[in-house]
Recover the amino acids of this structure.
């Protein structure tokens, strides 16, 4: 008897001596939420902690002060790319400080123009506090993926209520429009070479400014 037959014989013997048959599969349960409600101080603080650890720059402001905050952030950018569906108030605040380059479906900006822009300003779909991740899903106020990946600086606006604690909670929101392309952002783009030397800006923006509006109560 060769080794293969010996192994199979032992398996057959073990199964024949089993009175209960093979064990029933153990059902798996997955966490679908947390005790942290969206947009609460706990969720916001956790997201900020993760983003800062990823070397993102986080800015807090009241909802009514958002336009002013965006204008200040755009003050040192010669030009700012904006998606066609961006909030007009945000656009106007930035237009007072920098040239506006609007990316539209009918007339998309080329990569040379995107690469030369000082910054890009977008909204976001949802943010995950536990992982420090911001997700864009190509809604009109976020635009196509290229505009958030090519410019060297990304200014991203989050409403406090868009911040959830866990990945399953975010996936449930994103699942409302499963056909949309997703961009998952965890801090500025960064990679390391074989000697673990960190290099930023290789696969996306070198600088990520996250503006969190509201949620102070």
């Amino acid at each position: 008897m060769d080794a293969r037959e010996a192994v199979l014989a032992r398996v057959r013997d073990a199964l024949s001596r089993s009175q209960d048959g093979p064990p029933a599969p153990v059902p798996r349960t997955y966490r679908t939420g947390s005790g942290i409600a969206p947009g609460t101080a706990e969720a916001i603080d956790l997201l900020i902690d993760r983003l800062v650890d990823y070397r993102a720059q986080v800015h807090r402001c009241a909802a009514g002060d958002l336009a002013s905050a965006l204008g200040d952030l755009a003050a040192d950018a010669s030009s700012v790319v904006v998606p066609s569906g961006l909030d007009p108030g945000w656009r106007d605040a930035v237009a007072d400080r920098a040239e506006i380059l609007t990316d539209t479906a009918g007339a998309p900006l080329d990569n040379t123009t995107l690469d030369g822009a000082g910054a890009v300003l977008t909204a976001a779909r949802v943010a995950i506090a536990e992982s420090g991740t911001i997700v864009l899903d190509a809604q009109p106020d976020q635009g196509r993926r290229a505009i958030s990946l090519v410019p060297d600086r990304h200014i991203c606006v989050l409403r406090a209520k868009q911040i959830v604690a866990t990945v399953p909670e975010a996936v449930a929101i994103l699942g409302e429009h499963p056909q949309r392309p997703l961009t998952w952002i965890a801090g500025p783009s960064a990679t390391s070479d074989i000697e673990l030397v960190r290099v930023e800006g290789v696969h996306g923006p070198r600088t990520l400014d996250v503006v969190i509006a509201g949620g102070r109560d």
The radius of gyration is 24 Å. The first helix runs from residue 3 to 17. The CA atoms of residues 30 and 168 lie 9 Å apart. The first strand starts at residue 57 and ends at 61.
